[in-house]
Amino acid sequence: MIFSGDVMELVRSLAAYMLTSVGYWKIFEKCGLKGYWGFVPLAREYNISLCADREEEGRVYTIIMAVSYLAYVVNIAKLENPILQLIIVVSFIALFITSIIYKVRIYIGLIKVFDRKKRWIWLFLFFEALAVLIYGVSSKFVPNRKVTIYSGLDGAKVSGIQAGSIENGLSVNIEKRTAIDFFRKKILLQDIHLNIPKGHMVLLLGGSGAGKTTFLNAVTGYEKADASIKLDGEDVYEEYTKMMYDIGFVPQQDLIRGNDAVQLTLEDAATLRLPSNVNLFERKKRVKEVLEEFGLQSLKNTLVEKLSGGQRKRLSIAMEYISDPKLFILDEPDSGLDGVVARGLFERLRAIADQGKIVIVITHTPDRVIDLFDDVIVLAKDAKRTGRLAWYGPVDEAYSFFGKDSMEGILLSINQKDEGGEGLADEFVEKFAEYHKEKVG
Fold first, then answer.
1. 269 vs 166: CA distance, rounded Å
2. I need a surface site. Which of 48, 75, 360, 365 has the fewest CB within 10 A?
3. Cα 74 from Cα 90, distance rounded (Å)
4. Does one domain contain both 52 and 131?
């Protein structure tokens, strides 16, 4: 039986794909991954980058290949517009060249992991299926490292603690916060339970990737977790439409229009942030109150673009505070401010807390204003890179608990060793769980 050229090409392509898949399967097993990913399009491109210790390149390469697979369904011949044909052809060529560049980077990484000479790259480029089979099947080819998957399933032990709901304050019980990241389920946060009374100003401390922003998003209901979040006894998740007015969140970067005056900016914020049943008179009254509280009354007719860094930051905070929230959260409000201006800003936040509000703040320079805080929440990445609670309580007790005399020292103790820290996160997570059990017991 004689096959047509198209059928023969299809058979050759399928054979090459299957042989490459078998090679990937065996390589993945050698690297500590699930072998079946070798047969799954896109997943196998990403997993080979993990084996090659080239995850960042692998993410880009996977996206490129996803676009390439979609390109196969486009039949350029059916396009009647020659300009459109040319654009698509040029785009495909650029895509092909980019994919080759990233493939080379990944395979060079794989060659290095298997302790082979760089000239192997030529076999990978021109006879990929053969090269992959050799690396996967031959017992002489052994990787010098295993892929570590931080699944969050082990790490520090789960405490089993629950924070009971309090009528006047914030109750947080986060069991887990998960996400799908390139074919894998990751646990971002786990086992975080605490109560914050009204009138407390709390520092949120944690190294890079410890889950500070994820924690705040879960608390505000912006990104829901497997959790129970209650503010003054009301469920934030179940009553989100109602509770959103009781929670203010100030991001690190403001989105204020520079060509608006200060008062107009606050009036627009009042229209957006206050419930629809608040009339015009009440909105204007609230704007006037906030102008005075944040020292902006004399600047009410000044354009935003003319404000200093500290004044602009005060306006950014005032915009969120316009709704008179019970819970006020700020992400690095002192970013870009000098010590004196930052100190003044934190003193205003302390005054807000003293009015019976809950104020939670992230700052990268906590030691210069730590005397203004009541408590500190310390989040740490455990051995599986999951955000865990390593401490919650008074600032002075935190120093004693960690055996340090500064917040910077506490961070150093919980950061992983590959980040320049002491790598004691798991130890302190479990120590705090025992401390908390004894305290409530």
1. 31
2. 75
3. 14
4. yes
Amino acid at position 58, single letter: G
Q: Which residues on neighbouring strands pair with residue 303, listed in sequence order?
A: 261
End residue of a domain, out of 119, 137, 155: 137
Quote the radius of gyration of the chain (alpha carbons, Å): 28
Q: What is the pLDDT of residue 151?
A: 47
**d(C-alpha 271, C-alpha 266), whole Å:** 9
For the chain, give the number of residues. Answer: 441
> How many angstroms separate the CA atoms of 307 and 290, rounded?
17
The torsion defined by the Cα of 152, 157, 158 and 164, in degrees rounded to 10, comes to: -130
In a domain, 148, yes or no: no
pLDDT for residue 76 is more than 60: no
- Cβ neighbours for 274, distance < 8 A, ≥ 6 positions apart: 245, 282, 283, 286, 322, 323
pLDDT of residue 152 exceeding 50, the answer is: no
Handedness of CA 415, 418, 424, 428 (dihedral sign): positive
What is the domain count for the chain?
2
In a domain, 158, yes or no: no
Are residue 49 and residue 186 in the same domain, yes or no? no
Question: Which one-letter amino acid corresponds to residue 431?
Answer: K
Are 348 and 429 members of one domain? yes
Whether residue 152 lies inside any domain: the answer is: no
Tokens of 407: 């917040």
The candidate with the shortest Cα–Cα distance to 328, out of 311, 302, 306, 350, is 350
Going 420 to 425 to 431 to 432, the CA torsion angle's sign is positive
- 111 and 226 in a common domain: no
- Per residue in 207-263, pLDDT (tens digit) is 888 899 999 999 999 999 999 999 999 999 999 888 888 999 988 777 788 788 889
Q: What is the pTM of this model?
A: 0.76
In 3D space, the residue among 242, 231, 260 whose CA is nearest the CA of residue 358 turns out to be 231
